[in-house]
Amino acid sequence: MGILFPTFAQHPCDCFIKGVVLDRDSRQPIPGAAVFIKELQKGTLTDAEGHYRIDQLCQGQYTVVSSILGYKQVAQSVTLVHTSEQNVLLTEDDIHLQDVNVTAQRATALSSQTVSQLEGKALDQTRGQSLGDALRTVTGVTTLQTGSSIAKPVIHGMHSNRILILNNGIRQEGQQWGSEHAPEIDPFVANRLTVIKGAAGVRFGSDAIGGVILVEPAPLPTTKTVHGELNLAGFTNGRQGVASLQTEGGFGKRFGWRVQGTLKRGGNIRTPRYFLDNTGISEQNVSAALGYRSARLRSELYYSRFATRLGIFSGSHIGSLSDLQAVLEKGEPIVKSGFSYAINRPYQQIVHDLLKWKTDWKLASGGTWSLTLARQLDDRMEYDLHRPRNDSLAALNRPELRFRLTTYTGDLIFEHKPLANKLTGSVGISGFYQFNIMNGRPLIPNFRTYNAGIFWIEKLKLNRWEYEAGLRYDYRHMQVFRYENRVLEKPLFVFRNFSGTVGATYSINDQWTARFNAGTSWRAPNVSELFSDGVHHGAAAYELGDRTLQPEVAYNLNLSTEYTGKKVQAEVGLFYNTIRDYIYLKPQAEPVLTIRGAFPAFKYTQTDALYAGLDASLTTVLLPKLSGTSKLSLLRVQDVVLDQPIVMTPPNRWENSLRYDLGKWAGLQDVFVGAGNLWVARQNRVPGGPRSATSDFIPPPPAYSLWNLTAGFAIPVSEKRQLDVGITVTNLFNTVYRDYMNRFRYYADDPGRNASVRLKWKF
């Protein structure tokens, strides 16, 4: 059949094609899919709900092509008279290059920034791990550990208050200032984890100096059919078991719902030579969502509760200076125990509640208003090693430290309609009110904070170029309440500053893209950095603040390029970041002896810092069924005032892996096997040199190399159902090592061999 190309004189070119792109199996919307008309080379991307629309078309017959990485391309013939609604169902593509890789795609941040996403089968291979451990598969991301069960994500060497985490669109607010305060988020709520590398303060507010992590659930279903997913995971090290169940469905054509829950239980972790006493974990999480949608209105109510009890390695709490010195010299715990599920003192107990309401209203003129309101309550209880002298039951159950942080957040954003199909943008205001109530022995005072911000972002697309710019202003008011010599003081701190960004993206061709972004962001000192004064038992450290600290101001430059071909996928990113008045915990010359024991001492200190480095990844198809992946992360951090390195920054890393896909084998489907190696260099860039213990109590540990094995397959159960099975063995050869980014490396080795089995059943 021939293709018709009507002229303007014959027919007006005011037609359009619209529709929604869905996953064929789950019927879930697919955001970010490319939909274009082959004959005109004109197209668009689907929005967050999978919808697309292509305007200003003439009548005629066209071929509509839909595609996205990880799915088979679909081409459909459309005869257009005036309007056409063309929905698309995409089927997952068994392209092994994309199954095993973390891919960089556009997200809700500025498109000139480097964005990596963990989803699909790559995300499934991390199920059962914490959020920090799951994100370690992303190039340029590592973790700050406190023992074996607590991990915080680190992006380009930055963590804690320099990284923003958005949990289902809400700025996660907990006691993230502590090195052992892991994010209070259940990764099972997400069907995608997105990492935005570099300053993103214009869109997300102050504190996003190092980057942003988006924990994104799938859109709520629009069909009446009830379906769901059951995930089970078991780990040999710690004898840990994890179970997570999610069900969802709809009411009528306008309502959708989802309910999810997770249980986790594990015992003492074992190093290659001994068990780590009191390193068990117990976790119970639940979430629920209810949504309504119509042609113009979309509204969603969401609630989640994260509850965990974490054992703190007892060998990190030492009673005397002589015993502490002996442990530092010998490098092993004084007392070694066997396996146990018991979680005794010291331990942490955390409950984090999140309630969110979001409403979007599409105007007839084409713009969209979005209002998001949320409340969070973070209740953190910390129990010291030694029991209170009063042996009453009430005293035994009372934590020595309790932090109750309540946060109210609100965002109002307007996205204007595209102007001339080239200019898009948004303007918004955001704010939060937060107060903290602290009980127990002194460490940080109570405080109350108000924050308000306003931003404006615009994007201009011209042929293969896309330009963008944004500006934001934030104001923060913090009132502190503390007793000094039994007299109540109320010091007031007011911080304000601008954030800005400019960037450009150039599509060299359909496979090759280059990005540049320059931005500035800032971060106010938090209450712990200003007023800490005492033993922080969870971190096994004595910490001292400084009330004269000034806000950090960062200037970021990022340059990256990505290539995606049929057999090769590559990405290289360079970053150069300077931070004025950089705040960090500086180790002091001598440990501190208190009535609760002997602890390494740290003081919050300020300087000017330089962060520079490179991320690179390469995945290639070596043979028809064999693919290989290589990831390299290089980082250099320098105190530019003292002209010396800064402590506790990640060493260089190089990771390599091979994967062989058998496809169908012995009645099984999607069969694959893989092997990999992670090499982590010794952190030689420390004050005084790599052999010096003067800057950090003991010299940095030596480099290490860890091997791992992976395998997976699907067991067909029926024509439409299958059981997915994943097997992983980490630290295959039970290597003895210590990671420089583990705060407990002073006292013990890191975990030994760990085999895991993951089962996934979709119904």
From TrEMBL:
Fetch the SUPFAM superfamilies from UniProt. Answer: Carboxypeptidase regulatory domain-like (SSF49464), Porins (SSF56935)
Supply the Pfam families for this chain.
Answer: CarbopepD_reg_2 (PF13715), Plug (PF07715), TonB_dep_Rec_b-barrel (PF00593)
Q: Where is the TonB-dependent receptor-like beta-barrel domain?
A: 346-732
Say yes or no: keyword Membrane present.
yes
GO cellular-component terms in the record?
cell outer membrane
Q: Which InterPro entries match?
A: Beta-barrel_TonB, Beta-barrel_TonB_sf, CarboxyPept-like_regulatory, Plug_dom, Plug_dom_sf, TonB-dep_rcpt-like
Please give a single GO biological process term from the UniProt record: siderophore transmembrane transport
The chain positions of domain TonB-dependent receptor plug read 111-212
Give the superkingdom in one word.
Bacteria
Family named by the database record: Belongs to the TonB-dependent receptor family.
Q: Which PANTHER family match?
A: HEMOGLOBIN AND HEMOGLOBIN-HAPTOGLOBIN-BINDING PROTEIN 1-RELATED, TONB-DEPENDENT OUTER MEMBRANE RECEPTOR
Q: What is this protein called?
A: Iron complex outermembrane receptor protein
User: What is the species listed in this Swiss-Prot or TrEMBL entry?
Assistant: Larkinella arboricola
